[in-house]
Design goal:
Blueprint: H1 5-26, H2 37-73
């Protein structure tokens, strides 16, 4: 899954669609047929899968943000304490 806000958006839309499908299966609107047990099971499975993807998209983007923030705060020149004093980049 891409590490971008686009991944979050796509994952959120997929989750919302799965949630709406599950909601319609649990409480069918007037005129809708009642779901079969297999259809209901599939709605739950799909909703869980999409929620997992949404969590992953947020976790990946949060991790990418941390990496970007750390890189932005790392000086481009200077001393490297792990190498001992006097070592420059």
């Amino acid at each position: 899954m891409p590490k971008s806000s686009d991944a979050r958006t796509v994952a959120k839309l997929a989750w919302e669609a799965a949630w709406e499908r599950l909601d319609n299966a649990l409480q069918p609107p007037p005129g809708y047929p009642a779901p079969t047990p297999e259809e209901l099971h599939e709605c739950f499975r799909l909703a869980q899968e999409r929620l997992d993807h949404l969590r992953l998209a947020h976790a990946l983007l949060a991790e990418a943000d941390k990496t970007t923030d750390a890189a932005a705060q790392t000086p481009k020149t200077g001393y490297f304490p792990e190498l001992g004093s006097g070592h420059k980049q």
